[in-house]
Every structure is written in structure tokens, then in C-alpha cells.
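hey m, so remember when u said the C-alpha cells were messed up on ur end? i reran from scratch. heres the input so u can diff it against urs
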Amino acid sequence: MARIRRSPHFDPAKGVFTNPEGPAGETAGGAPTPDRKELLRTYFRSEERARRAPAGVLPVHPTTLADLARPARGGLRVTWTGHSSVLTEIDGARILFDPVWGERCSPFSFAGPKRLHPAPFPLTALDRVDAVVISHDHYDHLDLPSIRTLAASGTTFVVPLGIGAHLERWGVPDALVRELDWHESTELAGVRLTATPARHFCGRGLRNTQHTLWASWVVAGPGHRVFHSGDTGYFPGFADIGRAHGPFDVTMIQLGAYSEYWPDIHMTPAEALRAHGDLGGGVLLPIHWGTFNLAPHPWAEPAEWTKDLGDASGTRIAFPRPGQPFEPAGELPTEPWWRAVSHPITRPWRRPVGTTRVVRVPGDDLDLAGER
């Protein structure tokens, strides 16, 4: 708590961490304040509810562990295992972001959002992991069963300020935890990890005290650089991160679970492409979609809209199946595999309620935040 109170991003008068930009659609501490009655009506409309899940069985990559047993030829390999969980092999180090192997992202084993596809491999079968990086403490990013499994392997946890209290309570030794405020860094296994700003909120219960920080992350090795957004709304700080730490070989950017009811704490595909450009990204890997049903939009909409926008702008975007490793310097997985197992996507682009941002692709006349 002493470190938290000294943080320039903590408001001692209100007792909460604060967001950059102070978006109007949030409370002072960052939690969204949607119209709950309208949101519930949206969630329980039968036709829309059916579209929020896949229409068939998701194709999970079948040979992930065998593929990972071979060294990455170019020194950088990325494996999206679902939602925001990504194994990044960078310049000899293995970094695992936001590992969620549990069946539900919920405080309960019998209720809450359930996985829409199995994990590509057992977490216990994964070879050496040098660091587990956590973006924030929500259940779909900080998963108790996964943390306990990884802690037993002796790996190091690199987390935003305050999250060490969760890990300590779950039995993770202090020596294995490194807590960082925004703009602080730590080094291990030959790479440098830096906590960078994000626009989101925290909390694992009804009493949301905002005593843990949320972050995006930069990992820089001798030959490569990657960025993981965690959960965030769009904000001008992406350009600052790009200038300070970029350019990046890969940006792993959240572009699912968006809604007009919380426009400032999650990004739409259009905003994600804008953030990717601000960061000076090379390859964009969409994350935070496909694995859990967490928002009113159709299940495959984030991928479909992202592909449309990428094709229009010439952005290099990877669309791996869960568990499919790829090397950004090589051939990218680009097949729209979700189309075989999804309902048709018919909803047109529209600007989210509560935001006036218009995002355009350089050199193209496509309005990415409005209708096509």
C-alpha cells in the first residue's frame, strides 16, 4: 500500500488508481457505468444471444506442443492459445501473457462465462516459461487455477502494482513476484519487460476498491520487440508508447468484448487498428475474442470486421487458430477459419454511443468508426 499511495497514477483522496485521459464514460477509478436495464435487455434477446456463440465446433490447432518443441527459426514466435493468453518466444526467452486455462472466467466453478473451445494443450505439459505476465486482475486475465499450476513450476510473475497481493494470498512466494507501476521495467532471461499505460479498471468482486493497477506491456529483447495491450480503450498514449519503445515486430491488441455500453475501456477493431498504427506495429495479432462470451456483439464479428479493415488498409494481420504458432517474419496464418463455424455477420459498422472518434485508414476512404 505504501508503493500504491506513492504512485503518480493513484488518487489518494479517492483511494483509487486513475486512467489516462479521464474518459467521460467511466467513474473516477475507471469502472464503466452502462445503462444496466438496456444492457440486460440486449443480453436476453434470443436471436442475439444465439449469435454470441459459434454455430459449430471451433478448430483448435492439434500439434501445438510438437511445434513448440522446435526452436523458432527467426528468434520470435507467437502462439495465441485463446482470449488474451499468448505464449511469446522472444530472443531465447519464453513469456506467457494472461494465462487462462480454466473452464470459466468466474469466481464460481458452476456459473459464469464458459470456454467455447478447449485449451490447445495442458498447461502442465508446457516446457519452460521464464515469466508469466499479467495485465490486470479480472477473471478472464488472472485465473487462479492457472496461476497455481504455473507457480508450482517456479516461474517468475511480472504484474502491475497491487496484484502481488492476490498472488501472495494464493501461495506464490514473494521471491517469484515482480510488481511494476507504469513506466517501470524489470529484466530477466535476457529481455526487458516494461509496464505501460492502459485505459481500463480492476476488481474481482462487487466492492471494486481499485487498489490494483492495470497495464499494457512491452517486452524487448536484443533482436525483437512485442507489445501486449491487456484490456484497454483507445487513448492517445499509444503513440507515446510507440515513440518510447517501438517499433514492434508484433502487437497483440484487444479488439473483442467491445460495446456501445462501455466505449472507453475496450476497443473496437477500428480502434485496435488505429492503436496498432500509433504503436508502429509490424504484425497485428487480434486477442480478447473467440474464447468467452463477454459482450453483446456476435461471436465472430471482431475477426470478420478486423479482416475487412486489414484488407482495406494493407495491415499485416495474423489470424491463427487457437494454439497455432507462427513467426511474424514468415508466412502468416490468414485463413478466415471462423466463417465455417459462425453465424453470418450482418451488422454494419456504426459509431459506438458516447464517442465521437472517427478512425480512418491512411490512404483509404473507409470510415472505420461509422458505417461503410
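this time it looks ok to me. Residues 301-313 form the longest helix (13 residues). if urs says something different then somethings off w ur setup not the seq
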